[in-house]
Design goal:
Chain lengths: 678, 678
């Protein structure tokens, strides 16, 4: 039963909803982890809907960047005013939800402050420092961001160039940007909004470098908002997406700050310059982990959102005939359209299950750390790096497939999909560039492979990589006509593929070293193969997460349709991984053809439930920001209304003619002028 | 010898250029089809460089849509004034070049008029009509566009809903838009600029529909530029790219036009309503063909442009160490970076060779048509559809790979790559949506397959598909250590793969029909496999074009480096096509590993020439519009200059504080206001 049918909807979409073989409410409560959360989601959405000051006055596609920033500033103030009434403000997930409903994903002037300042202060300041700075941060008496990356340097702390040189005479640090490449570059909200930064800089004492440390630095006057002396700061300019975030640059010209503005929870510098090293290194680890686990859920939702838009539009749009004389068909009836869209939806569910598992594992690891255990930390770090890269890239490809599947209208900003893509694809780059992330996982996998090649694990391996040490269940692939429903054969197949890829990379690496290459050279010459191994391991992991999630579903109709999506996911991935599987004869052509056949028949089987599946995500029209993806299916009349309200039509621009003559003859050309500039 | 070295350049890029093993000038003259053309290209670029009224006053990334349109209007007028002096105005290729240097690819108010009006009038009007309308069009006394697609309908003429109903009493056509989906939607420059349209509408006489015909319709008053009575017209709103083009919508409410405003070269309607059918159908065919052949060259250039930006930046950017203690390396030294970028460059060259062949074939076919031969028309139509889809998609993926390979800076509009992508990816959708295009080629291939399965061709097959009828040279793949340099083994391999894919799709299609499915149903259930067959055939075709082009190169050093790129292209494609090749045992794992090994060693071999290869495209900095891709390599200081000149920094926006209190405590939030609005 589809709960999203309303009177007055486009009948093309209503008839789709009537075909649902399951209750969208049951699936919705699985997606949002409980009926209670789904209900709260709706209540918060309703609250937003009822308060006009939380809305955009016009589609954001029609705003200039400055208008959009001004609008975001206005809304975030309104949001803070409404928070007490709208949500349980002490619940982070309700805060997140409320903020995402109102603000979207493009950023606002206190986005980084809200996200990072308090956790970073708590993790790095001693008690005295906390007493001084934390209340002001929490009360919004200041607006801070985290300044790490530089114009010429990414996330590698070792390579940062900004210096903080301790002067024992004045008991101050002198902050300096010695080169053009040392300018801080990219920190969110740094450009125009922030007045403080948490600064990563190389600590120098008596001419010796102690590596990157954190400092608390005021950069603007709190009254005039002007940069303080010695500081140059500004916005880095427009980007592909996130343009309501004023990512900024920052240059220090010998700026002095007191000694106690170094964050001293872990490392300390005494007045005389004596340095006390931190006891534990890399304590920021777990918060990066947590951020990555959140990202997986975000990627899943981005992909689901694009699938929702494209699938809904594909039952409104009609084109061409399949049965002659029966009129134009819905484009979702085309196999090619199903093949473009439904695997994206399946992947969204797979990423969601994976993100949930990682998030929960992350909580567990953080608890373990508190009780002194760090056993799972390295495992979780490695897999979360690989998953971030794998899922963000598949998400980006998937959103574009959804967009292109909407034809010309997908190219219009009215579809919402170009904006969704250019925002979401940032996920391939931020929080660790994808190639770097894959190689991080590969480094961990090479340790596993070393154990495999050298007589087994030294200690009980983490659950995530146990399969590397299990004897192969079969040396040939068992997928065929006799395929049964427990999916174990497919999981075995993926495990085989990632074992192969991992060991092949390991053997190549060892071979190159034996030829006399250094570790680093051998690593570089194996890098493409190493990335392949990481992707294969991630595929195996995601597949297992999805299988386990579907197995836990109690409601039979939902379990059935989710099982269809799961099978589509698995067989689609098999066709994608086919090369690795056939390379060693594990899979044969006949089995590949069976997998393809399964994909095609699953597409047909899922198709009647497609709209109900995306409905279950309970996206509001305000969230989707898409004329094509409207719940009510009234696409065409609203495309016209959207166009008619766009700036070129609204602002009543006059076109005046400019006649002139040159040697070629008479030219008549049109010259635009805005009315106000005439 | 690299001719692009200049004193004062970033030494990181100069040392790359010094490694060139070939003369960039020789390769440049191959790319631009002759030294004379390369020289003219430079002269025109120099002319543009010397005339400030042909420049943008600021980077287009900093303009609002309205500013950009106004700027484009200004520039196109300046360009027309300069044309006589700057170029040989009667040479279409010089016009194209001049226009692309000055205007870029985002469009301007007479873009469609320049491109289409004259050819469409010439192809469809009788002499009397031509005498009336053509001179005015050529003299820019009017500005017209071509109005075909509708809100609910793509390129399929049969489904258009706009009607032109002949009224014998008044001897007029009544133009009408009967439904919301019948609104004309997308025509370029229709929104605000044009005053005339070439209209596709269903012709009705005495209640009978005669199908889509072309009409010449004035839509705006030539003095006031206001829409004429019964006409609603406007801009369709902002898009992913092409935002200086005012794509528009158009609605007719029973608008009357004289009988003689139907274009009457082919079909005629007499005053009494007697209809005379055209003798030849589909006469617009060859101009669509020509447009697609131009597009292939454009796709090649887009891809080369993104490769130029990313490869140049990759020798400026340093990150991480490979040999410990030797300092950070250029990121192009990483195998993963080479593997991302160099295959894109190889594909750009492959597309260029293919586009050139298709363009020449197109000229030949058009000549043939004039002398009554239409033999090659269907072949050329089919392959050009498939190539458009294959090349546009690979281009889009490739541009994004180049963009992501630039890390965070690739996400900034300063890189030029987001804008290049959002413009270029339109090529996957316009001029025939890619899936539709692949299926057009598949329809042709199924005829070929039918001949193969039924005793050979009925007549001498076109050169393009002859390989389908040749006996297989081998039943196993011959690529291995003994690989020689004539590439025939690889071409055989591709031919094998596309034969297999084509015949597999054909057999599936026949099988489904024998099971009782209608032609259309069977076609739909085979559609994904049909697309695969089309792609495989295109790969075969492109590979052959590239092989033949490289074989023709006389200059040995250029031939050597191009041969490296060709091999990279071929082996990269083999790894991509591996599944199809292994499915039937044609290729074995050992051979696949050989192909991969070849790819890695070719990456290493090409790397020293990478910068010189992209230099040979002779892109000007003005063309690239990319701080990362600057010829002189001075990236970082210019990123800062770019950022500092961006609107948020330039317009001296004040940030004022807005203090307010709510139950949570004191909030301090920043509120933006533009200076002028205070």
């Amino acid at each position: 039963m589809n709960r999203y049918i309303q009177v007055g909807d486009n009948t093309n979409i209503t008839e789709e909803r009537q075909k649902a073989t399951f209750d969208t409410e049951v699936l919705g409560s699985i997606i949002y982890e409980g009926q209670e959360r789904l209900n709260r989601r709706r209540e918060i959405a309703k609250y937003v809907e009822e308060h006009q000051d939380l809305h955009d006055p016009k589609p954001r596609a029609f705003m200039t960047r400055l208008e959009a920033i001004e609008n975001a500033s206005r809304k975030i103030i309104a949001l803070k005013k409404h928070a007490e009434q709208a949500i349980n403000a002490s619940d982070p997930s309700e805060n997140y939800l409320f903020q995402s409903f109102v603000m979207g994903g493009e950023g606002h002037p206190i986005a980084l402050h809200d996200l990072l300042t308090a956790p970073v202060l708590l993790a790095n300041c001693d008690d005295e420092q906390l007493d001084l700075w934390l209340p002001k941060a929490l009360n919004y008496e200041l607006n801070a961001t985290y300044a790490q990356t530089e114009l010429g340097h990414g996330t590698n702390l070792k390579d940062l160039e900004t210096t903080a040189t301790y002067d024992t005479k004045t008991e101050e640090f002198i902050l300096n940007s010695p080169t053009i490449t040392s300018l801080k570059w990219w920190p969110g909200n740094l450009g125009k909004s922030c007045d403080h930064v948490v600064l990563q800089a190389q600590l120098y004492i008596h001419g010796k470098c102690y590596g990157a440390h954190l400092f608390w630095v005021q950069i603007r006057d709190l009254n005039t908002h002007k940069p303080l002396p010695g500081i140059t700061v500004g916005d880095i300019g427009p980007k592909f997406g996130m343009n309501t975030n004023d990512n900024g640059f920052l240059k220090f010209d010998h700026v002095k700050i007191p000694r106690r503005h170094m964050m001293m929870k872990h490392a300390q510098v005494d007045p005389d310059g004596t340095y006390h090293a931190p006891i534990h290194a890399k304590l920021g680890y777990s918060s990066m982990l947590y951020l990555r686990s959140i990202l997986l859920g975000l990627f899943a939702m981005n992909l689901a959102q694009s699938a929702a838009v494209a699938i809904r539009y594909s039952v409104i749009r009609r084109q061409g005939e399949i049965v002659p004389g029966e009129g134009e068909v819905k484009i979702l009836d085309y196999q090619t359209q199903q093949h473009r869209l439904l695997p994206q939806l399946a992947r969204a569910f797979a990423f969601l299950a994976t993100g949930k598992f990682i998030r929960e594992m992350c909580f567990k690891v953080m608890q373990d750390i508190r009780s002194g255990e760090v056993g799972l930390l390295a495992d979780l770090h490695a897999i979360s790096c690989g998953l971030k890269a794998t899922c963000s890239f598949q998400m980006a490809l998937g959103i574009e497939q959804c967009r292109m599947a909407c034809g010309g209208h997908g190219y219009s900003l009215a579809s919402g999909l170009p904006q969704l893509y250019s925002l979401a694809v940032g996920g391939c780059t931020y929080e660790g560039e994808n190639m770097v992330m894959l190689l991080q996982l590969a480094r961990y996998l090479m340790k596993v492979a070393n154990d495999v090649r050298n007589g087994g694990p030294k200690e009980e391996p983490s659950e995530i990589v146990q399969y590397y040490f299990r004897p192969a269940k079969s040396t040939t692939c068992l997928i065929d006509q006799a395929y049964d429903t427990n999916h174990q054969y497919v999981l075995d197949t993926f495990e085989h593929a990632s074992k192969r890829a991992t060991l092949a990379a390991y053997d190549k690496l060892q071979g190159l070293k034996q030829k006399g290459l250094s570790n680093e050279q051998a690593w570089n010459e194996t890098a493409v193969e190493l990335c392949k191994a990481s992707r294969a391991h991630c595929r195996t992991f995601i597949a297992r997460m999805f299988v386990e999630q579907v197995q836990q579903i109690a409601d039979l109709p939902v379990k059935n349709v989710m099982n269809d999506l799961l099978e589509l996911y698995l067989f689609y991935e098999i066709t994608e991984a086919a090369t690795t599987l056939m390379e060693d004869g594990y899979m044969r052509g006949q089995q590949l053809r069976f997998a393809r056949h399964k994909v095609y028949s699953l597409l047909e089987k899922i198709r009647p439930n497609a709209v109900s599946l995306v409905d279950s995500f309970d996206f509001t029209d305000r969230q989707l920001e898409s004329v094509l993806g409207r719940r009510d299916g009234h696409v065409y009349e609203n495309l016209l209304a959207w166009a008619q309200s766009s700036p070129l039509n609204k602002d009543d621009i006059d076109c005046i003619y400019s006649f002139f003559t040159n040697d070629l003859g008479n030219f008549m050309l049109i010259f635009y002028r805005y009315q106000y500039s005439l």
